[in-house]
Amino acid sequence: xxEIDWVLxxxxxxxxxxxxxxxxxxxxxxxxxxxxxxxxNQGLRQGVNWMVYCGGxxxxxxxxxxxxxxxxxxxxxxxxxxxxxxGISTALLAGITIVLLRYSLRGxxxxxxxxxxxxxxxxxxxxxxxxxxxxxxxGEDYLTSVLPGGQENNQQRNSGDLLAALxxxxxxxxxxxxxxxxxxxxxxxxxxxxxxxxxKNKGELIxxxxxxxxxxxxxxxxxxKGHPAKSELYRRVTLSPNDEGVMPKKGKVLKKEExxxxxxxxxxxxxxxxQEVKLFPEAPLALSKPVLPTSSDQQHPIDQLIxxxxxxxGLEWPDVVDDRTFMKRAYMDAIGLLPEPAAIExxxxxxxxxxxxxxxxxxxxxxxxYTQNWLSxxxxxxxxxxxGTGFITGGRRQITDWLYSSLLSxxxxxxxxxxxxxxxxxxxxxxxxxxxxxxxxSSQRTEMQAAQNIGQSLLGINVKCASCHDSxxxxxxxxxxxxxxxxxxxxxxxxxxxxxxxxKMAKVNFIYPELGEVExxxxxxxxxxxSTVMVKKENGRLYRTISNRFWxxxxxxxxxxxxxxxxxxxxxxxxxxxxAADFIDSGSxxxxxxxxxxxxxxxxxKSVSYAKPExxxxxxxxxxxxxxxxxxxxxxxxxxxxxxxxxxxxEYNPSGExxxxxxxxxQEIEFDRTVLPKPGKRYFRRTFELPQGEIAxxxxxxxxxxxxxxxxxxxxxxxxxxxxxxxxxxxxxxxxAGKNIIAIEGENEGSIANPAGVLFSMxxxxxxxxxxxxxxxxxxxxxxxxxxxTWLATDYDEEGWRPAKDYGNANWSTLVRFTFADxxxxxxxxxxxxxxxxxxxxxxxxxxxxxxxxxxQATLLQALELTNGQFFNGVLEEGAQEWLERYGxxxxxxxxxxxxxxxxxxxxxxxxxxxxxxxxxxxxxxQLQDVFWTMMILPEFQFIN
Length: 945
Known about the structure:
- GO terms for molecular function: electron transfer activity; heme binding; hydrolase activity, hydrolyzing O-glycosyl compounds; metal ion binding.
- This is Cytochrome c domain-containing protein.
- Keywords: Heme, Iron, Membrane, Metal-binding, Transmembrane, Transmembrane helix.
- It holds the Pfam family DUF2231.
- The chain is an alpha+beta fold.
- Among the domains are: about 5-140; about 150-265, no CATH class; about 440-535, no CATH class; about 630-650 and about 820-840 and about 860-945, no CATH class; about 665-815, Sandwich (Jelly Rolls), CATH 2.60.120.
- The protein contains 33 helices and 20 strands.
- Strands 11-10-13-8-16-17 form a six-stranded antiparallel β-sheet, with no helix packed on it. A four-stranded antiparallel β-sheet has the order 12-9-14-15, with no helix packed on it. Strands 1-2 form a two-stranded antiparallel sheet.
- Strand 10 (about 705-710) and strand 11 form a beta hairpin.
- It is globular.
- About 40% of the residues are buried.
């Protein structure tokens, strides 16, 4: 080594010492700068300036020394280069910050804004650079390894036991050599990858792959097979901890058992197993149905297993809930609606000991309400929604028709999975990823999205982390992920590590290849094979995952948490495996799974609440169902049942009744382009001929945004000003044989252009003969100006009037009451409504990605919405008006009915007295609105106990 080389190498090794100085200076400078801004304390100005100057200088010095360290100590790999480039960028940005500060102090800028922005960006870049530096020195999983589920917490390998077992024989079998190789590779992964992996190959040595190990390092082979003493690797790991050449460095010397295993491995020929090294715990793929305990005196299978669990935990059986509480719990879980007061009283009075099981059966038989309740769960899980990113480009499609019909018919779960994975046109929206515009990260290709969605929602495994590199939180590798994603690709995929091609092509394979082969010539064949492999009974992962999700939904906390990390230890493995195996035995019947849980005594136990959220996660002991908040949809539907409909229109109409009428308005044209309707009045006409004959009924429906007056043959018959309300009228006595004219004067409110539309339908039934139907469509004529009332006449000359424009349903959705059927009390179920700010505030996700659980903790935004939200208070105001029209001044009846409908019980004497005092003898709308609000924010209303 030349004199200049060792000097440069020495200087490079000062990088770790020097680099921390600018970090501290620049971070403190930023905090003091914020202090100056907030407290107007200019006395700190000069000190902050010097910190920035010194920090910038040492950032540049650190970058230079870091470059010398990389070059002279021969560090290499993507991680090293990324750290270097970020370090240089940080130094340059720090220099720019100094320049901006100098210019600002000299008055060349009005204030210090540009300098402060640059300082903030510099500190942010310092953080990113420092993170990569930590990954280089301590390993890429340095932070995650100490987390629950991380390597250090979960990988306590019993090297001593394996060493003792293998040392008893001179010649190892192939199976024993495989065991030994996997264990040694695990030692490498835990202690050596931070310096010798594909991301950082110090000394050109890679120990993370067989090819890298065989190639050796810059000094040649690292192992001489059969001779530990002649092997460089063994020499390094047995050096004194204080020796400069000892490996691994950073004070992480190997344990005696680990060194002995490496020695034995070399003695036995350094066999390299092709098996994956499992650094993290992994649940067994297959499941077996545990034998139910015979010692328990419980009757239900779940209760028998829980009885054993309680004995093991030293717990006594808690009491079960009363009938009213059970009824609300079962109703909400099965159909998402509050039980009606009459049904509650009948159930409470029933003396049949099997009444709870019979109630569960009845609720699960209510197919439409069951489907509309559980539709939200499946929409979250399968990232299905009615609008959002990807719909514009056609890269994302709804699966609502398929999903609704599947739930309605209680399609077996394995069949649902097959149709999702090997889709028809109706179900392809699940695996068809969002087609992003512009440059797309390799981990967000549509094929990768399909693998990520299936992995998370159906298999409970995090594929996203392993889409960029080998996972830091599971045993999943980049190779496996690309093999899985390749199933959905039209062409061969090249592996990208951290968005950089590595020159390796993916081989088509399922994550669990032991279940079967999925390789095929065409995409269609691969999907068919995958759909068959995934639903095999041997794939316990699939059936455990859905069983765990349903337990979580019904009991408030999964047997395994988080729900998407199914390799984590369950609080009762036998219970989970029994549920999954019984689910398979039932033919993958989802309602059977629900019934098994809901008819158990365990489900009926009194609910449990915890003061701190972490008590539900760490060291959890099951003592009963958790108290649960109503979901956004359940809360909205409960308000609709008790007070007034929250929503009036749905984006998806499950009734199947096709509305022929179109939303029409006068076409506004400017510069040869159609524009939004302007405020003001517009006029609509539709003439039609009626034959002779006795009319039995002529029912008309109308909804106009914003207001209207309806005329028939010149006579004003109806007016309204709320598009959400469907006004209905029998026009029988106003019709005549021959020519008739329907005319509508519509008005668009507001001060600027905004959507407007007329929706009208009329069915005329004769005593004999075919009915006649008149609907709003583009055959209607419109204008924006009329003189007098001559336009109402049947013989009016329509010259100058133009055909109406169909404005579609985009701004109004489908009104649930716009139907000739008698559905007076119907309201729009929230699960069928497209994303709405109210639902979003209450926790409904955007469904751009898979969402397997919603946050159960209330937020400040939710509190503000329920306290002062314009939309929520508008619903309560409408409800108050409806109740006053229905009940008049009968305050006592109002209070009684409000308690029965919302809480399922009568008010106590004290509760009734408080509310009667609030309402008074002649309640006003505002008083009743306040009473509604008081009831709706009660925990008893908002929670499932």
